[in-house]
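Regression check, fe (iii) ion case 140:
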Amino acid sequence: MDKFEGFHYTIEKAGTRVLLDNAVVYLEVGVDKEVDVNSHTLFIGKVVESEMINDGEPMTYAFYHEVRRGTTPRSAPTYSKLEEVRKIVKYRCKVCGYIYDSEKGDPDSGVKPSTSFEDIPDSWVCPICGVSKDQFERIE
Ligand code: FE
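Current build output:
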């Protein structure tokens, strides 16, 4: 069967078929080595060709976690601090009650979404009353 039937693609120099639908970029890699790593085969090679197909937003592993709410077991090699950020989501200002939500961050003060409270710079202050980080308490 032709797995590419019904899809739009081009055929590049080395014969690689490049899917054009739902892709932002492609990389064509010449394989130098194959390594058996038990559950997978790791291919090592050099990029020989690449091109941006369109200027859309790529779906990354971060997108999977942040938007699709995907999770990764703690034992997995791809487990990241994003998992921790999702579990410890909120801190409350003991002075004014403002709640810091790590998923939202505090973009008005330069704190990007998915920033854990611990990773906010010490110079950050409560956006409502202006007290420092040590005036916040963790809430679940
Ligand atoms: Fe406050």
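Comparison notes: Residues 81-87 form the longest helix (7 residues). DSSP finds two helices and seven strands in the chain. No diff flagged against the previous build.
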